[in-house]
Amino acid sequence: MEQNTNETLDLLMRRKSVRVFEEREIAEADRRRILEASLRAATAGNIALYTDIDVKEQKQKDGLPVPCDNQP
Predict the structure, then answer these.
(1) Is-contact 50 43, C-beta < 8 A?
(2) pLDDT digits (tens, 9 = 90+) for 46-61
(3) How far apart are CA 53 and CA 35, in angstroms?
(4) Which of 11, 31, 35, 65 sits at a 20 to 30 Å CA gap from 55?
C-alpha cells in the first residue's frame, strides 16, 4: 500500500473502532473532550442520525439496549 504524506490521511488510516471496553474510570476532562469530538464526527450525507449518551451508572447502562434497538 502507498505511504501517505498527508497528516489527515495518516490519521484516517490509523483510525479504528473499539467494541470491547475496560472497567476503569475516564478522567472528566478526557470525557468532555471525547464528547466534544464526537459532535464533530462525519455522518453520511452530513445528517446526524445518532445520539451521544453519556452514562456513568452501571444500572443505567444495563437498561440501554432496549431503547437502542436491543443492541448488546
Answers:
(1) yes
(2) 676 667 778 888 898 8
(3) 9
(4) 11
Question: Grid cell 468532555 — which residue?
Answer: 32
* Prediction pTM value: 0.51
Residue with cell 444495563: 62
**Which cell is 31 given?**
470525557
Q: Residue 15 in contact with residue 24, Cβ under 8 Å?
A: no
- Evaluate if residue 12 carries a pLDDT over 90: no
Q: For the chain, give the number of residues.
A: 72
C-alpha distances in angstroms, 31 versus 1, 12, 61? 35, 22, 16
